[in-house]
Design brief:
The chain is an alpha+beta fold and about 400 residues long. It has 11 helices and 21 strands. The model has no long low-confidence stretch (mean pLDDT about 95). The structure holds flavin-adenine dinucleotide (FAD).
Length: about 400
């Protein structure tokens, strides 16, 4: 295939698409535009660094299929490119009888998705693995792990360039024009215009806006930014957790709840919460964008979400405003943890699609419009699954 493929966004997904196109079609020319001065400055480097293996997702969904396939591809990629990762396993904790039933459902989901080695731990084994964790029941997910996603992106970017792909940083795409006769797409940036045969948009937090400016139509899904804030365990408290310790998530939401994560280069993170953000790329609670706020607050889907989930919304907001509210979420898993052992960490902002009926879109969502392919929803486990999502896009849409 001697085609020129344009990609917008050098997050992990845009890079993975470029890499997979080159793998499948070595003669295709890749041109990738990124508005920042390097790869992965947003979601892909502001996440938990976890390799999710497919426990949570509705069997048969794209997420279930691509997470299971994705973790294997990611581990293989890391092995071949000497990127730090570790399949350290995770323990999911039920704190009461109600959560225990949810945990049993999760275990069935995981088995249906093909996960291997799932098993409930007895109290002696839990104590051996995670002595400070309190549980009514606990499920071991041995395939789960941790990884250095920024190193994955650096490696993808240099492999793409080695094969002749062109990466343009500091190049914000304002819009595109489609040539009527040829169907080719003219990508417009302040520096240059470039003509491509096919365009793939992986714009994360700006996916809906780019859909609008590229297709001229309103996006079927709206991105609402949900900030996820972390605390770090002080070095002297790191012994409180050995691996990955997660609560049973509320099945109504795609967020996994405040959890403990061992980072691949050392340190222990606690979080993230899920707070409505006033800026799409606002990493602190103080950052505000009038455009983003008005955009969110005038969207009926968000208003429906908030009014249907007042308790959730208020609980997450209070965990952002008050350290003790955050601590309470952490204490549910490890009661011995104290306020003094936590120190403010980083934050990320999730690009979460919300439908007009107020439901959070759970599955990955990818649409095609003419010669444009738009990724409209790629929340967690989008980093784990990135190579599999990219493979899916190439197989389905790029011939
Ligand atoms: C707090 C948090 C925790 C998470 N934890 C995990 C985890 O542990 N494991 C996991 O698998 N997933 C996790 N995720 C999800 C994962 O990070 C995302 O699914 C993934 O990073 C999405 O990648 P992306 O390339 O689509 O988006 P991004 O990384 O956001 O990339 C989009 C890129 O598009 C660029 N862009 C946007 N508009 C334009 C434009 N007009 N012109 C040019 N460039 C543009 C942006 O600058 C950006 O670089 C988490 C996410 C968050 C926020």
């Amino acid at each position: 295939m001697k085609k020129r493929i344009g990609i917008i966004g050098a997050g992990i997904l845009g890079l993975a698409v470029a890499y997979k196109v080159q793998e499948q079609y070595p003669s295709a020319q890749i041109v990738l535009f990124e508005k920042e001065n390097g790869p992965g400055k947003h979601q892909s480097s502001h996440n938990s660094g976890v390799l999710h293996c497919g426990l949570y997702y509705q069997p048969g969904s794209l997420k279930a299929r691509l997470a299971v396939e994705g973790i294997r591809s990611m581990v293989d990629f890391c092995g071949r490119n000497r990127i730090s990762y570790e399949l350290c396993g995770k323990v999911v904790i039920a704190s009461d009888e109600r959560e225990k039933r949810f945990l049993e459902n999760l275990a069935s989901r995981g088995s249906a998705n093909g996960l291997k080695g799932l098993r409930f731990l007895d109290s002696a084994e839990l104590k051996h693995r995670e002595p400070f964790v309190k549980a009514c029941a606990s499920l071991l997910v041995p395939e789960e792990g941790i990884v250095d996603y920024p190193a994955v992106m650096d490696s993808l970017a240099s492999l793409i360039q080695q094969k002749g792909g062109l990466l343009f940083y500091n190049s914000m795409v304002k819009g595109v024009k489609e040539e009527h006769l040829s169907g080719r797409v003219v990508i417009e940036t302040p520096q240059k215009d470039m003509v491509v045969d096919l365009l793939v948009c992986c714009a994360g937090l700006h996916a809906d806006r780019l859909y609008r400016s590229c297709t001229g139509e309103f996006s079927p899904l709206k991105i609402i930014p949900f900030r996820g804030e972390y605390q770090m365990l002080k070095p002297e408290a790191e012994g409180l957790v050995n691996h990955l310790v997660y609560p049973v998530p509320d099945p109504a939401f795609p967020f996994l709840g405040v959890h403990f994560t061992r980072l691949v280069h050392g340190g222990r993170e606690v979080g993230p919460n899920a707070v409505l953000a006033f800026k799409r790329e606002g990493y602190s609670g103080l950052e505000f964008s009038l455009r983003d706020t008005v955009d969110s607050l005038t969207y009926p889907g968000l208003l429906r979400f908030v009014s249907n989930n007042l308790k959730f919304t208020a609980g997450e907001l209070s965990s952002s405003l008050f350290k003790n509210a955050f601590l309470a979420k952490a204490k549910k898993l490890i009661p011995d943890i104290t306020r003094k052992q936590l120190v403010k960490g980083t934050a990320g902002v999730r690009a979460q699609s919300v439908a007009s009926d107020g439901k959070l879109v759970m599955d990955f969502n990818i649409v095609r419009q003419g010669n444009q392919i738009h990724v409209l929803n790629a929340p967690s486990p989008g980093a784990t699954a990135s190579l599999a999502i990219a493979g899916y896009i190439v197989e389905q849409y790029i011939h």
